[in-house]
Prior knowledge:
Elements: E1 8-15, E2 22-26, E3 37-38, E4 41-43, H1 50-62, E5 65-78, E6 83-95, E7 106-109, H2 124-130, E8 135-138, H3 141-144, H4 146-158, E9 163-166, H5 173-189, E10 193-197, H6 200-205, E11 210-213, H7 215-220, E12 229-234, H8 237-246, E13 250-253, H9 269-277, E14 284-287, H10 295-300, E15 305-308
Parallel strand pairs: 1-6, 8-9, 8-15, 9-10, 10-11, 11-12, 12-13, 13-14, 14-15
Antiparallel strand pairs: 1-4, 2-3, 2-7, 5-6
Helix pairs in contact: 4-5
The structure holds 8-OXO-guanosine-5'-triphosphate.
Amino acid sequence: MFHPSDIVKVAAAVITRPDGSFLLARRPAGKPYAGYWEFPGGKVKPDESLLHALRRELLEELGIHVEHAYPWITRTFTYPHAAVCLHFYRVVQWHGEPYPQENQELSWQFANNVAVEPMLPANAPVLRALDLPPVYAITNAMELGIKLSLTRIEHALQAGLRLVQVREKGMMKEALHVFAGEVVKLAHRYGAKVLINEDIRLCREVGADGVHFPSSQLMNLTELPGIDLCGASCHNAEELFQAERLGMSFVVLAPVLPTLSHPESKTLGWQKFATLVRECSLPVYALGGLRQEDLTTAWEHGGHGIAMMRAIV
Length: 313
Ligand SMILES: Nc1nc2c([nH]c(=O)n2[C@@H]2O[C@H](COP(=O)(O)OP(=O)(O)OP(=O)(O)O)[C@@H](O)[C@H]2O)c(=O)[nH]1
């Protein structure tokens, strides 16, 4: 075990192009794990801010000037020789063309099809997180009716939606089975993924991609059910901690703003949202009273993306 003061702080960059590809660099000879692929970045100096370290490292390693970077996830990982705390940023704007200043190999890759290996061991969950789309829709068929709901879901899929949660509290069992099956069929036609709220069995029966656990269920779980994609709803630090401990694929943190579906809940606001997600190792979707226009605000506050119900499907 490493003492907390021995944990090496690292700033790492997911430099992303508009087509979704991101840059990986191969660790040069002479460093530990030479030949392994990593996200560009490096150690934070004492008294240096994370963002400053990020800018300095990308200038030193790639010759680029960071113009716009969003804080993203933070992962601690223990190697035999050292423990590292990796603070990931998504760099979306820079000037200069990345050029290997230290003779390292560079490669642009896509999260769902990384064609270089080996990756640094700490980075496997990071690639899975990068494969999650920025918007997560939650169905609302009990309010809209099944027919209109399916029409709206299809429109959103046509417009690029790639992640949907079937959440229909109070819908009769048979109707829910049929509706969930329809959503899965529709979504898979567009290459989108579907999570089923709460019901692991229904998820398997309708061939959905994952399960979304409400916070009460999350707090009672001792392990994940062995399903590829597992999401959870969180409202506070304790629930986020439990989701991290279990190794959820992602979480939704709510309510950020006042929302019709939970009018009685106390809202977090963006500052509290940012404080809660700052050290979180999981990608976090902001939820509650949000619209498509709020995506950038979510990114600025450390979110992976936004989740929406009425504003999207
Ligand atoms: N840059 C970077 N480092 C990572 C990643 N994943 C990961 O485990 N690390 C670890 O974080 C540490 C970063 O240290 P580094 O050696 O790259 O730092 P540096 O550029 O400041 O080099 P230096 O040792 O010459 O001062 C290493 O232990 C590395 O194995 C990643 O994706 N990017």
